[in-house]
Specification:
The chain folds into two domains: 4-132, Alpha-Beta Barrel (N-terminal domain of MutM-like DNA repair proteins); 145-266, Helicase, Ruva Protein, domain 3 (Orthogonal Bundle), CATH 1.10.8. The protein is 24% helix and 20% strand. It has helices at 4-18, 129-132, 145-153, 159-164, 174-184, 195-214; strands spanning 23-28, 49-51, 54-58, 63-68, 73-77, 94-100, 105-110, 116-121, 255-259, 262-266. A four-stranded antiparallel sheet has the order 1-6-7-5, with no helix packed on it. A four-stranded antiparallel sheet has the order 2-3-4-8, with helices on one face. β2 (49-51) and β3 (54-58) form a beta hairpin. The radius of gyration is 20 Å and the shape is elongated. The structure holds zinc ion (ZN).
């Protein structure tokens, strides 16, 4: 699943190509999760922003185009020439297409359909409850050790489950949760995290995201940047995807289990509870 570094990489590539462009035509897969793409026709994109894993493009008429890539979503520009009238794709996994006044066509490809396209009045996210309840951006000044400590203390759920909820901090998914907890030597199953360990965890969350961002995101099965690159961060993961291999810190075999429905890898020795 694309997480903050992957979505931010895509945002940085989309922004210069979409800003100031008017949507001249659109096509949408006929499903409520995608058909609002059609509502953008005639509007001009004023920029491309991001909150957590959501791309948010303000439009010139006071609305926002919101896109979420779900589990398998990817965005790219269509290579073949289109006549601008018939945007219907031959590929059955294309969910939305936007044609712009410079003749470029952007498409959202999403095999498993966990993605989403919505058009809302700016800042009105009641139809998108996860977005409405997002915690602070992890790289912002609002994501303080005290915030993380207090937010985690509000719930009795496992610390990893809370990191994934998007309410404690925005944009962290399975890969970076496993990595940050491993680096902080905090068990993903912990139910209580003191201020000292919350401070370490806050720093490792930031570190893993910044390092991945520097590499253009982690290379995953379905991840592609807008330019078609796959990201290079895979080589730098210490924990995620390494179950059964020795911990790079202590040599203990990393373990894997299901935690609240999400595959979780951790070191039973240096991430003991
Ligand atoms: Zn270890």
């Amino acid at each position: 699943m694309p997480e903050l570094p992957e979505v931010e990489t895509i945002r940085r590539q989309l922004a210069p190509r979409l800003t100031g462009r008017r949507v001249s035509a659109a096509w949408a897969f006929p499903h409520p999760k995608f058909d609002e793409a059609l509502l953008t026709i005639g509007a001009t994109v004023n920029g491309v922003g991001r909150r957590g894993k959501y791309l948010i493009a303000p439009l010139d008429d006071g609305r926002e185009l919101i896109m979420h890539l779900g589990m398998t979503g990817a965005m790219g520009f269509v290579d073949e020439p289109l006549d601008g009238r018939d945007l219907a794709p031959a590929d059955p996994f294309v969910r939305a297409r936007f044609r712009f006044d410079d003749d470029a066509t952007l498409e959202l490809h999403d095999v498993r359909r966990f993605g989403r396209v919505a058009v809302v009045e700016a800042g009105h996210y009641d139809r998108l409850p996860t977005l409405a309840a997002l915690g602070p951006e992890p790289l912002s000044d609002d994501f303080t050790p005290e915030h993380l400590w207090r937010a985690l203390a509000r719930s009795r759920r496992a610390v990893k489950t809370q990191l994934l909820s998007q309410r404690v901090v925005a944009g962290v998914g399975n890969i970076y949760a496993d990595e940050a907890l491993w680096r902080a030597q905090v068990s993903p199953m912990s139910h209580r995290v003191g201020l000292e360990r919350a401070t370490v965890l806050r720093n490792t969350v930031r570190d893993v995201l910044v390092e991945s961002l520097d590499h253009g995101g982690t290379r995953l099965r379905n991840y592609r940047t807008v330019e078609g690159d796959t990201g290079a961060h895979q080589l730098h993961l210490d924990c995620y995807g390494r179950a059964g291999l020795p911990c790079t810190r202590c040599g203990t075999e990393l373990r894997h289990r299901d935690l609240d429905g999400r595959g979780t890898t951790w070191c039973p020795s240096c991430q003991a509870r």
